[in-house]
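User: Hi! Is it possible to get a structure for several chains at once, not just one? Here's what I have:
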Amino acid sequence: KAGVTQTPRYLIKTRGQQVTLSCSPISGHRSVSWYQQTPGQGLQFLFEYFSETQRNKGNFPGRFSGRQFSNSRSEMNVSTLELGDSALYLCASSSGTAGQPQHFGDGTRLSIL
Amino acid sequence: QQQVKQSPQSLIVQKGGISIINCAYENTAFDYFPWYQQFPGKGPALLIAIRPDVSEKKEGRFTISFNKSAKQFSLHIMDSQPGDSATYFCAASRGSARQLTFGSGTQLTVLP
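Assistant: Yes, the chains can be modeled jointly so their relative placement is included. Here is the combined structure:
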């Protein structure tokens, strides 16, 4: 079974631009969660989508948004990029049932110049 | 409080030794406690997980010990190997939420 796939792996943007990251979950998984990983703040939850609906949201500004498609693939968008948005963005998928493990992709490394 | 506190920040052990990483949580609503292993350039990989109704769970060389009254849980890696050198994260979530709250991570180095 293929794992969680995130594209692109690396991205360089400048301040003020916007960016869209993509995540393809494990086949059959309906829940997709996004996390931001930085050396200073560690791993922080952004949001979770299940059946095309945002089910949970972390404490991030509205510049961070996402969506999920009918095939469970998900995209995350960050608008008006700031230097502090430089991070590894991780996507995790699960079946969506309580207590089922989340499996992570290898992330997209976003660098803001 | 949603925080999960993890210690130590870094750990160096000899090959064949036991690595122990500790985590403490505050939110008594947490009911799922996974441990993840992360290698450079890779995403976190699930190692082992436990629920509060069990005090210990073992999978191969990895054991989670759970103390509900103290709100603490720990990962023990027996017979540590150089290939275990990685960053380890504890995490917690509650109920049906898929929102994981992570500890700050422990960088483990196993010397050959």
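Residues 2 and 27 of chain A are 7 Å apart (CA to CA). Chain A has a mean pLDDT of 94.

User: Great, thank you!
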